[in-house]
Every structure is written in structure tokens, then in C-alpha cells.
Amino acid sequence: MSDSEHRRLADVLVGYSTAVQPGDVVRIEPFGRASPLARELYASVLRAGGHPAVHLAVDEVDEIVLKEGTAAQVEWIPPDQERHLTTGDVWIVIDAPANTRRLTGVDTERMAQQLTARGPLQSRYLERSAAGQFRWLICGYATEASAQDAGMSLRQFEQVLHRAAFLDADDPVAAWKRFAERLEQAGSFLEGVSELRIVGEDTDLRMEVQGRTWIRSKGLRNFPDGEVFTGPVEESVEGTIRFSFPAMRRGRQADEVRLRFEGGEVVEATARRGEDFLREMIALDDGARRVGEFAFGMNDAVGQYTGNLLLDEKIGGTVHLALGRSVPGTGGVNQSGLHWDIVCDLRHGGEAYADGDLVYRDGRFLPGVLSS
């Protein structure tokens, strides 16, 4: 990305996504390769009247602690990070790893131990966010590793992120506000629905969503963004689902994942590859077998699988569910150290039914379902 592109992105993140105000304490966490964007974010926060602090993330340190640390060291949370997430105003993470597979050789139980230890802190900052006390954002950033995962050159992947973030528009903020109106329509319709049924190849899944809130993801927590999601009634999920794309988690993956639910719990989990990893993640704790989130991806500017979950879960025409922790604000109450989003493509023959009526086919809500 050019300096002007970094500056344009930084201004959108600070002025629109996190709406930094005078006096806000802003923690910026970039990987080293994202330092050009970090510099522009720092400057943009200053122009907005905030107090920025940059905390550089180093790729290899999480691998080292998970392989060599004691149990206490694996579970330890840096005090400065905990203090900011519980008392600060804004947290911006730039997701730019040099090696997306760096944790492939790490023992899954050690990963689960770390996730469990960080669960209460994650719940705390999500609760603060839902209450309007804290703004957080994860921003995708192109690296050679992420481009290779997508089967693209670095410049091609940069362009994918650029389009998905509406940075090719004359006024990106205005484009996000127009897109937000579409998400509002979808969320308003879904909040009038009691039961959803998702049908596709090897998929027939039902869940109750009555009384739950559908959150419109319009570039304020993820960037790029574009989904509407809720927390389904925990005991209501029934049936089967086969996921079109690999299930990715901290550089590990399971391919062709199939889940069967009874009474809201996973009772059968299989994968063509990575099945042991899948089962170990589901066994993390009692809540890891339940669904904490269900979502419709609605960003049509994201059209192809990239291996980057930040993008893939937003693909227009897909749905995804997250095993584990519910997101505060949805009405979901599932507790877990896990929150694992897995994506299912409905663009080729998939359907969704709302209270028995067909409302969605081939990745689109049917004409007349959403207001114009």
C-alpha cells in the first residue's frame, strides 16, 4: 500500500470505525509489517485529540510461550493489556502476521489452556463494548503470508482488502453508511423471526432466535466487515451442517467439517482432515459444544475464499456459526473460552426459511423480504 492509501485507511478507522474523541486513550497493536499503517493511525488519533500508544506485537512470542512456558506463564496476561481492556477507551489491532501457520506445531491442550485463562478478560471487554464504554477493532492487513494463503500475489490481496473495505469509493465513510442501511434492513427483518432453518448440501439445521438481538456489523468492530449476527437460543439448535470452507483457528485447520446437533449440543463432529484438532477444540469446556453465534455474511465485495476468517465470514451469500462464547448484546448466554467461527457457502442451491417461509436462496434474500 502507498503512503496515501495507509493515510486514507487510518482516517476511516479513526474517524468512522472507532470514532476517536478528544481525550480518548487509544491502544494500537500492530505486527511489525504493519508499521506504516500504525504510524498513520498514531497521527490520525493525534489529529482527533486522542492519546495514542503503540504496542508492537512480535509473531514468534506466542509460539515460544506455548511451547516453553510453564502453566502459569501460558495463563499470564500482561498487566498493561488487562488494564487497557478494562479501563481504556479504544483498542485497534492490526492483523498482519508474517506466518499464519506459526502455531501448527503447538500442542492443542496448551492452546486451550491459554484460551480458557483469557476467557474472563474477553468477556469483560465485550461487555464494556456492548455497554458503549469501549470501542475495539480488528483490521485486516495484507502480508506475504496472507496473500499466499489466498493463492494471490501481495498486491492482489491488497486490492481484495481495499475493495472489501470500500476504500475504492470516492467517499469510503459514505459507502459504509449506505451499506449499514442494508444491514439495518436485514437485522430488522430477522428480529421479527422466531425460527430459522438453513438447508443446503449435507445441511439441514434449525434454531430458535426469538427474543434475540441481531447485531449489524458495519465496520465498527472488524475492518473489512459486513454481517448480521445473533446468539441463537442455546438449547434449540438441531440438525446437521457441512461447512464449505476450512475451519481455521490460530493457524490450525480442519477441512470438510460436519457437525450434528441435538438439544443445542454437538453430538457428532467429523472432518476429512484435522478431526483430532476439531474434537479437542470442541472439548475445551462445556460451552464449546454449543453455538454462541449465527450470522449471515452480506459483503458482496468479498466474493472468494481467502483463508482469512476476517474476510471469509463476511462473504456475501454465506452463513457462519461460532462454537462457544456468545457475544454480549445478542441475548446469548453461552459461556466458553472458545469462540470459533466456521463458514458455510449458500450461494449454490442453499436456502433459508424463516418460520417455515422461504426467504433466502442462492446467497440472497428473496425480493420483497427486505424493504427497498
Tally of separate domains: 2
Estimated helix fraction: 25-40%
C-alpha-based Rg, rounded: 20 Å
Which strand-content bin applies to the residues? 25-35%
Largest sheet, in brief, is:
8 strands, antiparallel
The class by helix and strand makeup works out as alpha+beta
- The outline comes out as globular
Note poorly predicted spans.
none
> Counting H and I runs of at least 4 residues, what is the number of helices?
11
Keywords:
eight-stranded antiparallel beta sheet, globular, 26% strand, 372 residues, Thermophilic metalloprotease-like, alpha+beta
How would the blueprint of this fold be written?
Elements: H1 3-17, E1 25-30, H2 35-47, E2 51-54, H3 61-68, H4 71-75, H5 79-87, E3 90-95, H6 108-130, E4 135-140, H7 144-150, H8 154-164, H9 172-190, E5 195-200, E6 203-208, E7 215-217, E8 222-223, E9 227-230, E10 238-242, E11 247-249, E12 252-254, E13 258-262, E14 265-270, H10 275-282, E15 291-297, H11 309-312, E16 318-324, E17 339-345, E18 351-354, E19 357-361, E20 364-365
Parallel strand pairs: 1-2, 1-3, 3-4, 4-8
Antiparallel strand pairs: 5-6, 5-18, 6-10, 7-9, 9-15, 10-13, 11-12, 13-14, 15-16, 16-17, 18-19, 19-20
Helix pairs in contact: 1-2, 7-8
